[in-house]
Amino acid sequence: MRLRPALLCSLSLLLATGAAWAGGSGFNVVVIANQNSSNSLQLANDYCEQRGVPPQNVLLLNHSWSGGSISCSEGELQTNLLTPLFNMLQSRQLTNQIEYVVLSMDLPYEVGATNGENTSTSCLFYGFKPDTNSPVPGYPSCSLPDYSFNSYAFSELPFPQGAPSTATTNSFLAFLLTDTNLAAAESTLQRGVASDSTFPNQTVLLEKTSDTARNVRYIEFDDAIFNTRIHGSYSMVRTNTDTTTFTNLLGMETGLGNFDLATNAFAPGALADSLTSYGGDLLDSRGQTVGLAFLEAGAAGSYGTVIEPCNYTQKFPDPLNYFYQARGFSLAEAYYQSVANPYQGVMVGEPLSAPFARRGVGVWLGPTNNLAVLSGSTNLQFLFTAATNLPLGQVDLFVDGTFFETITNIPPSAGDSLSVAIDGVTNIYGVPANSSVAQVASNLANVLNSASNSTSASATAFGDRIELHALNPNVPAADVTLSATIHNSAANPTTILSPASTTFLDSIATGFHGVLVSNNPAVGDWVQLTVVKTNGNNVTVAVTNSTSGETIGTLLQTLFDDINGTAGLESSDGIYADDFDDESPYGFADFNIYAQSPGWPASAIQVTLTASPDLIAVPTGPSFLQDNLSDLQARNHLYVASGASSLPVSWTLNTTQLPDGYHQLTAVAYEGTSVRTQTRATENVIIQNTGLAATLNTLFGASNTALNATLQFSVTVNTNTVNTIELFSTGGPLGTVTNTSPAYFSVAGTSLGLGLHPFYAIVTAGGIQYRTATTLIRLIGTEPQFSITPTYPPLTLSWTATAGRAYEILSATNVNGPYQTNATLTPSNSTAMWTDTNSPAKAKFYSVQTSY
């Protein structure tokens, strides 16, 4: 970690739907698995089952990587992952639907090149960012590369509207779900899913450690704490400590290279990370604690850099990620919005985790029968009811997990008159046609800031949120009022304004001012700090160098100590010094001067740093303790949304646009804010516009089938004029047979991996298509316990079996054995039966065991 160089200023396809889908769901995810890794396949399959990811959203890769599951070259990433991904999205018509990419363990996360090192998640997010400032090829520079800024950061926009501007292709909220073993990775997945909409009340801890190279995020703490206080979601606390053995936290940001965590450190859904150089070297540790440690301690997500990054705060998560999570954004949205330059960082964990997502209720009203038969133009009816104070603004229809059409959209209405009163001064904004929620927020903020309509507060728009800062330090926050009304003389307004509170909130932050002195002192050189307190009294602290060869750090440390030892500065209207940083090898030293009391009025202390001519003191001239003025001003939030609290929908579906056969129709309603939490209503139907029909039959396989079995299917069509029959499952198409019916397919279980898999076929005949019903098969490894049922005569043993599993039938004339093998049986379905045709009249004892 380098020091900073200066002051840092389906039908039944989709079994699991999860509890909430903040800004995304399984419909919006591509899961990428390494087909050469059984762990990668199993984790991917479990992710799909628990998050309702459609089978066509899975990409199975069969490539070798030069760096195994740790690293790859930029060219390998392009050839082996990016190109197959983009081809898959285009061929499966998913290009405009996918927002998330989940890399299922045993895939490389470091991406190296002669001009820098990035990560696979950052490359999927906004492309490889070369180190344009590197003095020597292959050696990282300290500067941030050109075009590495993430424009999505701090935007509070829906990701499709705020995707990074420097991305050269489609952009994805990419996460690596991994650990050193499968069980640990599965635990992260399960905790992430379990966290959805739990609205936890645990504390987030923001640690300012004693490690001056790694604690630099402390300057960002107060802003996040203030916003979270206004939102009122949960407790966020800043502390000066190196301790990391806390328990039951909702999150932690620390700055340490090495540390230990309690096994139950975090509640489900927590975000936690450390600012250190190699926290992203997940499986190739360079002696520092890596992000996986946070996951193994219970967090749902973490972050770390894979290479020496310098301690720029822009390369690490801002604590605002906790505020974004509190608003309801998913873990991936919260993390990517909080890292300004993520090119060297790897995002690790469960990206859809959303503890604060509030979804409404969706009910399918018609057709009312499950598997209703539809034909021609059919009316679909459903009703969505929004969560409290969160309108629903859009409804999309998905067919079998793939986007079909937007059914309704309720943007802000043209002509809506928005009236906002701040401290008794009213400003009015008229919504023009074709405005988005974010555009309304931005334009309304401009109106509030305009000179002709000046108020006692400034306004800044962040997506759908307007952050308001009081401009008069002498007016208590509770006296600054905020109200909003909406009117439209021609129609019902669809724009919604929601103040976070009717009055502003005072800051609990403490004002500070950073000072720096450079050049090593000669004998007689001096440094002096003059303080003018808020009561007008002056206090001066000065030090003089009396030793030849002294460093600037030693001289400034003396001034630092004298400030903190001066009695006249210890009262509530005084100051103290903190955050001393000795950078004498680089020719400077610095520290911060803090007010003894929190709040804006207390920061009006004036300080002036001066030095002898051989030394350079920065800044020059008198200054107030207001480097963090934005955090000191009283604050409030105003939220803009659009939509309705109750959304009845009646829509005509032209079923002739879809293949005949079995389909799952899912109407998805989106919250009319930047968070866009999804609410669903789902119905299974059969479409029949022609006489074409087909049946998928399982010839070898059952609901539980051994992984090492070869599944066998047949597809029978009620016509001889068949063009193609295609079999589909996890990962998309598995095979095609032309010009014949029935068609036969064989699928090796090991190619799909342990887990639940849906199988269906699509038949094309004479330009018409038919989709069969779906068969669900779970490929299993370890045999579950089973009981044996005997019948007689003749003696027959039967049991519920795993298809494709070999069973040995043993017998003995004495219960204590020895047992001899009578036969080996491999059932093709879920019922196993064996008859002992040679059973003697005397008693015999039997045992059945699996044979691996």
Structure description:
There is one protein chain. The protein has 12 helices and 51 strands. It is mainly beta and 852 residues long. The protein folds into 6 domains: 323 residues, no CATH class; 94 residues, Immunoglobulins (Immunoglobulin-like, Sandwich), CATH 2.60.40.10; 99 residues, no CATH class; 116 residues, Immunoglobulin-like, CATH 2.60.40; 87 residues, Immunoglobulin-like; 63 residues. The strands form 13 sheets. Strands 15, 17, 18, 35, 36, 38, 40, 41, 43, 44 and 45 form an 11-stranded mixed sheet that branches. A 4-stranded parallel sheet has the order 2-1-4-7, sandwiched between helices. Strands 9-8-10-11 form a 4-stranded parallel sheet. Strand 19 and strand 20 form a beta hairpin. Helix 6 packs parallel to helix 8 and helix 8 packs antiparallel against helix 9. The longest helix is centred in the first third of the chain and has 18 residues. 49% of the residues are buried.
Low-confidence stretches: 1-20
Number of helices: 12
Total count of strands: 51
Radius of gyration: 32 Å
Structural class: mainly beta
Helical residues, percent: 10-25%
Q: Shape, please? A: globular
Characterize the biggest β-sheet.
11 strands, mixed
